[in-house]
């Protein structure tokens, strides 16, 4: 295939260079024009079962790419390094900062320790994550997909490896169609080997969240880890390698439900990556000729730079598409082109539908005529005052404020619950069989199964006592009490202590049984107190 022979746009001279493999024309030694078709074109939809065409995204340069590198570094850093952070909780609790201790039924997150009955904290965090996602989507579209989704981050990482070994887009296209030489075999084997190492590291990092990381690592490499660890690493290695290395954009397009759901969260004020055809059209590769012929010419030089960087294989100039993950790489690519031809940046930009529609109406004379960029510019070539530009205040609108309000309320409620939660808990179950025992002297005894939950990683002494029914006495199996109504019970750190408690009412005080009484657990030093209102069963009450 021949490359096209140059282009003429204001400020650019022609200097074509054919390249059969790369399919590029270089203009003025500065702008490359790519003969590229969007693989997943919105104009020409592929049949559903057609074989996938590979996408070879070109490396983009620019501020959004920089930001994506930063997000990638931070998210991968958090994922791989978090299990190795230590957090001193004293001698009685694990020192791993983030640990899901399934065996001990605890979740440790730095200074926070969650017990199973406090699972509502996790539910609350999920609610916050949901509303956070609603908030971000309604404000800045699919930013999650474009920057922070694990699929995006790992595909980016796999692409870094692919580019390092096989080269950028054109070299990879060339390699793809090249015969299987030693060089090609070496490159392919190296690439897949590194991908597999990343995939194993990804699966490996996951299991370290569920056990002491240094210990598990030693056990894992010496083949002494539990089978579930190897199975988990195997599954995650396979999914990371297949999703990140082989399937890539297909996961977003065909497997992920989010692109479908997000449509309900966007409105005309949401920011989405937009091709501003009100200034770009009519696009032309021969601007000088067109201008000389008196035709109107838009800013788009049809260089396809935006197409070749797109990891989803689409052309943003075809309009909003489900495949677009709003990674903004096409913005970077086009901004670079605009810089080179001396036009304002933002031919492709984050824009709201309402701004876009208003500018489109301006450029088309209310929709009555084809786009004429002259309608959006003044005589001096600057944008007319009527052109609407992004105003950051649009982010603060009722919808986003509502999401933010719910998100904040959930956060405040969780914080309040966290700061005011008890670290001592008391569970009591009254014996049901028998409900009472008549002693030889006629007194009545009731039994209770009591559990003391000491939710701090320190041992302490809990005083268990009864209040009410002044004639009653209490005994705890295996423990002595001084006054017959209270017993000091030493409890282990971070443990549940089970007790058998017996409360006895003398024969001549049985009328007190109807009042009921309280079982109290108290840490007198820590000023924590838990109370359970109990019934006392007697033959008459039965
Ligand atoms: S069209 Fe642009 S923003 Fe959308 S996926 Fe492609 S490069 Fe990213
Ligand atoms: S939108 Fe920008 S990057 Fe895309 S073809 Fe036009 S000028 Fe080139």
* Associated small molecules: iron/sulfur cluster
Outline, from the CA principal axes?
Answer: elongated
Share in β-strands: 15-25%
State the separation between the terminal residues, measured CA to CA: 96 Å
Q: What's the total number of strands?
A: 16
Q: Largest beta sheet, briefly?
A: 5 strands, antiparallel
Ranges where pLDDT stays below 50 over 5 or more residues in a row are 1-22
Kindly report the average pLDDT value.
Answer: 89
Radius of gyration: 34 Å
> In DSSP terms, counting alpha (H) and pi (I) runs of 4 or more, how many helices?
16
Secondary-structure class: alpha+beta
The amount of helix comes to 25-40%
Structure commentary:
With 542 residues, this protein is α+β, with helices and mostly antiparallel strands. Residues 1-22 have low confidence and may be disordered. Strand 9 and strand 10 (444-454) form a beta hairpin. It has 16 helices and 16 strands. The chain is elongated and about 120 Å long. The protein has helices spanning 63-81, 120-140, 143-148, 150-166, 169-177, 182-207, 213-221, 227-247, 249-255, 258-262, 277-280, 287-292, 305-308, 329-341, 353-363, 398-420, and strands at 24-27, 31-34, 98-101, 106-109, 112-114, 271-275, 348-352, 424-430, 437-438, 444-454, 460-467, 473-476, 486-491, 495-505, 517-523, 528-534. The strands form 5 sheets. Strands 8, 9, 10, 12 and 14 form a 5-stranded antiparallel sheet that branches. Strands 13-11-15-16 form a 4-stranded antiparallel sheet, with no helix packed on it. Strands 3-4-5 form a 3-stranded antiparallel sheet, with no helix packed on it. The longest helix has 26 residues, at 182-207. Helix 1 crosses helix 4. The protein starts with 23 loop residues before the first strand and ends in an 8-residue tail after the last strand. The protein binds iron/sulfur cluster (SF4) (2 copies). The site of one iron/sulfur cluster has 13 residues, from helix 14. The site of one iron/sulfur cluster has 15 residues, from helix 13 and helix 14.
């Amino acid at each position: 295939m021949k490359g096209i022979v140059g282009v003429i746009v204001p400020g650019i001279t022609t200097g074509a260079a054919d390249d059969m493999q790369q399919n590029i024309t270089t203009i003025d030694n500065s702008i490359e024009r790519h003969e590229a078709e969007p693989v997943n074109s919105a104009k020409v939809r592929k049949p559903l079962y057609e074989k996938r065409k590979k996408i070879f995204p070109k490396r983009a340069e620019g501020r959004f790419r920089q930001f994506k590198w930063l997000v990638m570094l931070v998210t991968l850093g958090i994922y791989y390094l978090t299990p190795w952070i230590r957090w001193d909780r004293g001698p009685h609790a694990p020192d791993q900062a983030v640990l899901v201790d399934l065996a001990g039924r605890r979740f440790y997150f730095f200074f926070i320790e969650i017990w199973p009955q406090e699972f509502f904290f996790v539910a609350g965090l999920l609610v916050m994550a949901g509303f956070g996602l609603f908030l971000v989507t309604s404000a800045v579209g699919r930013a999650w997909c474009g920057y922070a989704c694990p699929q995006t981050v790992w595909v980016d990482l796999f692409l870094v490896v692919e580019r390092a070994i096989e080269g950028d887009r054109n070299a990879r296209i060339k390699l793809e169609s090249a015969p299987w030489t030693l060089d090609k075999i070496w490159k392919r084997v190296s690439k897949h080997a590194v991908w597999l190492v990343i995939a194993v590291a990804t699966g490996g990092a996951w299991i370290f969240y569920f056990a002491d990381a240094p210990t598990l690592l030693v056990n894992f490499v010496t083949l002494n880890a539990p089978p579930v660890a190897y199975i988990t690493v195997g599954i995650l290695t396979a999914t990371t390698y297949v999703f990140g290395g082989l399937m890539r954009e297909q996961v977003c397009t065909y497997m992920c439900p989010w692109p479908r759901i997000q449509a309900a969260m966007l409105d005309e004020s949401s920011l989405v990556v937009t091709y501003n055809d009100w200034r770009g059209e009519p696009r032309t590769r021969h601007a000088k000729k067109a201008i000389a012929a008196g035709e109107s010419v838009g800013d788009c030089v049809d260089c396809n730079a935006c197409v070749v960087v797109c990891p989803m294989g689409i052309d943003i100039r075809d309009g909003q598409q489900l495949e677009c993950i709003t990674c903004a790489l096409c913005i970077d690519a086009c901004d670079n082109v605009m810089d080179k031809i001396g036009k304002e940046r933002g031919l492709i930009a984050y824009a709201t539908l309402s701004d876009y529609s208003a500018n489109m109406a301006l450029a088309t004379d209310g929709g009555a005529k084809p786009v004429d960029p002259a309608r959006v510019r003044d005589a001096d070539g600057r944008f007319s005052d009527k052109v609407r530009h992004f105003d950051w205040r649009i982010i603060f609108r009722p919808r986003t404020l509502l999401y933010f309000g719910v998100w904040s309320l959930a956060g405040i409620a969780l914080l309040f619950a966290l700061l005011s939660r008890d670290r001592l808990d008391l569970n009591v179950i009254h014996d049901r069989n028998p409900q009472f025992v008549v002693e030889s002297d006629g007194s009545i005894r009731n039994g209770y199964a009591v559990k003391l939950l000491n939710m701090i990683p320190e041992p302490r002494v809990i005083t268990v006592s009864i209040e009410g029914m002044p004639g009653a006495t209490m005994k705890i199996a295996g423990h002595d009490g001084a006054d017959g109504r209270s017993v000091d019970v030493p409890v282990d750190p971070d443990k549940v202590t089970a007790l058998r408690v017996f409360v006895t009412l003398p024969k001549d005080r049985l009328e007190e049984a109807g009042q009921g009484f309280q079982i109290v657990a108290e840490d007198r030093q820590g000023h924590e107190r838990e109370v359970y209102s109990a019934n006392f069963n007697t033959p008459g009450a039965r």
